[in-house]
Each structure stands twice: as C-alpha cells, then as structure tokens.
Amino acid sequence: MLEEPKKIIIDTDPGVDDAMAIFLALQSPEVEVIGLTTIYGNVYTALATRNALHLLEIAGRTDIPVAEGSHVTITKGTKLRIADFVHGTDGLGNQNFPPPKGKPIELSAADFLIQQASCYPGKVTVVALGPLTNIALAIQSDPHFVKNIQQIVVLGGAFAVNGNVNPAAEANIFGDPDAADVVFTSGADVLAVGINVTHQVFFTDADRDKLAESSGKYAQYLCKILDVYYSYHHDAYSTKGVYLHDPTALLAAVTPSLITYTEGVVRVQTTGITRGLTLFYNKQKRFGEVTEWSDKPSVKVAVTVDAPAVVNLVMERLTNS
Ligand SMILES: O=c1[nH]cnc2c1ncn2[C@@H]1O[C@H](CO)[C@@H](O)[C@H]1O
User: Fold this and answer.
1) 6 has which bridge partners?
2) ipTM score of complex
3) Are 222 and 318 in contact (CB under 8 A)?
C-alpha cells in the first residue's frame, strides 16, 4: 500500500534557493505542502510573503495557504540582516515580477503552525529555510506544539566549519540566534542541516545550462532568477556554480535516507563576536560540572549527504515539470 504523503509546512524567506526548494516540494509525491509561512532573511518579511504568493501563482497552486510571519526577532529586534546581495533586492534575481493577486491568510505564521500541528498531531513536518523566529514563537506560545509537531528540519548552522556571514555564524542562525536556541533546546524532534552539509551540494554552471535546455516550467522560471545567485557565488567563493542550501534541507525531509546524522545537544551563542555560532556537544564526555549543555534534549545534526543523488533529484524534478 502506498504511504500517505508527509504533510509539510515550509517556513521560507524567498529567496532564489527557496524558490527551488518550494518547486521541488510541489514536484515531490512523497510530501504534501499544506502551507507556506514567511520570515525575513533573504528579504524582509513583507516581501517574503509577496514572493511566496507569487511562486504559488507561478506553480498554479494558489490552493496552498500563505501565513505571514514575524517582522522582528524573538527579542523584538528590528536591526535585521537582509541578504539582498545574494538574491537581488526583490529576492528573486531582480526580475521585477508583477505583484501577486493572492493575499496571505489572517492567521500569523506562528498561529498557523500551532493550528496545523494540533489538527494533525504527529503528522506535520516543518521545513525551516530562514531564521527560526516563527517556530520559536510557536514553541513559546503553545506548550503542546513540541509534541504535536512531527519534526522540524532546520536549514541552518555551521557545525565545526566556518559560517557564511562571518567565520562564526551561518546566515539563518545569525538572523535570530535567540530563536534558534529556543528551537534547539525545545525537546522537539529537530534535524539541523548545516552548511557543513549543504556546501557539499553544488549545482554547477553546466547544471544550469542543462536546466536552461529543458522545457520544464520550473526549470525555465529558475533560469531567469538564478543569475544574481550565480554571480554572488562566483564573487564570494570563486566557484563555478552555487550551493543548493534550501533544496538539500527540503530533500532531507522528503527522502531522509539522503543524509546521515549524529545526535547531541546544540546551543547557540547569542552575544559577542561569535553571536550565531552553533555549538554541538556529542555527549562523549561526562563533564564533572553542570554546563549550559547539561540536561538539554538532544537534536539530530546532519553529517553526510549523498550529493550526486540530491543534484539528480533536483534536476529530474525541475526539468520534468
Ligand atoms: O553569504 C551569504 N550570506 C547570507 N545568506 C546567505 C549567504 N549564502 C547563502 N545565503 C542564504 O542563507 C542560507 C544559507 O545560509 C540560504 O537560504 C541562502 O539562500
């Protein structure tokens, strides 16, 4: 008998690689996208909402609700770091797409997450592609959320490698370190897919050419918006290609066998020059003293990924569209 598709909510800040991940999810029979929630990160939250609605219109999937998320960090911080230099000022490769016709639903992102998790207890996975503010708000405002949610797959962290904002921090964790620490220590089933893993998944210039040759509707759309993302990678990393951050995290939820993971306690540095650092404790040593990692629940941290399989799936599903 066929398994029921896994219900997922994508928390997103679209974003070029977010667009890839969203289209990939819509092309994946293993999952049913039951909503998008929006957050700042690659763009401000209002633009993330507009882009989420736009992408669903491109996909012909306006049946999927969009719930707008927080405009500020969990500590009400308004000094946000927006990665428009990675994705373009519109978040989608400076294409000046017309505004979407649709509107977000009345519920906030956090309330939508809470509602869906309690409607389908143990059956909803959140794929978090931006800073973790909405998820932390859901955890803080509903004591049942942590047990109701099936899994939270987090694209974020830099485990034992340098960050991409600065040597310490990865962009999504840096965006709201306090929220990230709430999520990692909440006791929920959390799987963190950090840039130590996503930097192994590389989409080359030649891969983009292959996308361009296909007549798939998502392939065609993505080729338009990928330029800015490619230029950024050429400049920042001197690479001939781009990292598939968001698609890799999405596929970790769709096909968990693509990654391996280890388990331990993750805390996030919230102040100082290492703000946003994710520090993993592997529990191999029993420390004599009580530490900030003692008695905290374990999370899963991705260690390896079958990168060729991820690239193949991305290519196959986006070209056959
Ligand atoms: O250099 C960067 N600075 C800020 N954000 C980035 C950078 N590279 C990628 N991303 C964005 O942040 C997430 C991965 O950390 C991805 O969602 C990607 O779109």
Assistant:
1) 31
2) 0.95
3) yes
Question: Tokens 């340098």 correspond to what residue?
Answer: 162
Q: Which two tokens stand for residue 121?
A: 């207890």
pTM for this entry = 0.98
Q: In terms of DSSP H, where are the helices of the chain?
A: 16-26, 45-59, 84-87, 109-119, 133-141, 145-148, 171-175, 177-184, 195-198, 205-213, 217-237, 245-254, 307-319
Find where tokens 């999952």 sit.
Answer: 31
Q: How far apart are CA 109 and CA 16, in angstroms?
A: 21
- Superfamily of domain 6-320 in CATH is Ribonucleoside hydrolase-like (3.90.245.10)
243 token code pair: 């990292």
Say if ligand 1 is within 6 A of residue 86 CB.
Answer: yes
> Does ligand 1 come within 6 angstroms of the Cβ of 216?
no
Ligand 1 centroid, distance to 119 Cα (angstroms) = 33
> Is 178 among the residues known to form the active site?
no
87 classed as catalytic:
no
Here the tokens at position 244 are: 């598939």
Q: What's the CA-to-centroid distance between 171 and ligand 1, angstroms?
A: 5
Contact 211, 219 (CB under 8 A): yes
Q: Can you tell me which atom of ligand 1 is nearest the CA of 130?
A: 17
pLDDT tens series, the chain, 321 aa: 567 999 999 999 999 999 999 999 999 999 999 999 999 999 999 999 999 999 999 999 999 999 999 999 999 999 999 999 999 999 999 998 999 999 999 999 999 999 999 999 999 999 999 999 999 999 999 999 999 999 999 999 999 999 999 999 999 999 999 999 999 999 999 999 999 999 999 999 999 999 999 999 999 999 999 999 999 999 999 988 999 999 999 999 999 999 999 999 999 999 999 999 999 999 999 999 999 999 999 999 999 999 999 999 999 999 998
CA–centroid distance, residue 152 to ligand 1 (Å): 19
